[in-house]
Amino acid sequence: MRILIVEDSAILRDSLAQGLREAGYAVDAVDDGKRGLIHAQTTDYDVIVLDWMLPELDGVTMLSRYRAWAGQKKIAGGGAAVLMLTAKDSLDDKVRGLTTGADDYLVKPFAFKELLARVQAMTRRRHGERAPVIHVGPLRIDTSAQTARVARAGCGEVALDLTPREYGLLAYLAARSGKPVSRAELEEHLYDDRSQVFSNAIDSAVAALRSKLSAAGCDEIIHTRRKVGYVLKADATGTPGGGP
Fold first, then answer.
1. Which of 103, 126, 149 lies at the terminal end of a domain, its last residue?
2. What is the three-class DSSP state of 104?
3. In CATH, what number is assigned to the domain containing residue 116?
4. Which of these, 128, 143, 180, 228, has the minimum number of CB atoms within 10 Å of its CB?
């Protein structure tokens, strides 16, 4: 999942970016509302963490313009989910932020653990998931704990030892279970501006993930749709397993 942080405090911005990357997210971070709007309009983010008080363009104005742009483009759901960060804690300020288009509101100072929990919940809601655990056949993905397990008959569950990138790939496919996801979409949501993405990066990541799933007894759950991408589905039709 990919997140945009728009925060002018370098200390807070860097701290949030580091924490979210360690939690497995791809993160871009900018320090003013004008750059934030440009990023939001050119990249399909899952969540935007947006400060209220920003140079160039304040957070509420940026959010208003972003939602208006998303409406004109007919982007589903109005675009990314937005978590507003602010020192403003009056009821009127909260109402203004939410009615402008924010999905959630967090007052400074806050604990990173709370921000992470809210980002996880917003990501689930954006992709139509209510519960934190996603089941696909024998596969169980806990998006709160960021773990994946495979149920094996008579053997209980086997935990998958995944890298953050592999977990991100699996979670993104699981959020769209049954729907083909293109390589371009996977690249956009799994890699941030700092990443060097090779032409076969997604195919290599899928191959590594398939190998670990197979070792855990979960074969043929990631399927290739030729000229389209990949789909995660326990009983999918198409080109199961195998190469990309």
1. 126
2. strand
3. 3.40.50.2300
4. 128
Domain boundary among 126, 157, 186: 126
Measuring CA to CA, which residue among 25, 18, 3 is closest to residue 171? Answer: 25
User: Could you tell me if 8 and 41 are in contact, meaning their C-beta atoms sit under 8 angstroms apart?
Assistant: no
Q: Are 182 and 97 part of one and the same domain?
A: no
User: Per-residue pLDDT tens for 152-174?
Assistant: 876 788 899 998 889 999 999 99
The pLDDT tens digits of the residues spanning 65-121 come to 999 999 999 987 889 999 999 887 777 878 888 888 999 999 999 999 999 999 999
Number of helices and strands in the chain (H, E): 8, 12
**Distance between CA atoms of residues 18 and 37, nearest Å:** 22
Its pTM stands at 0.80
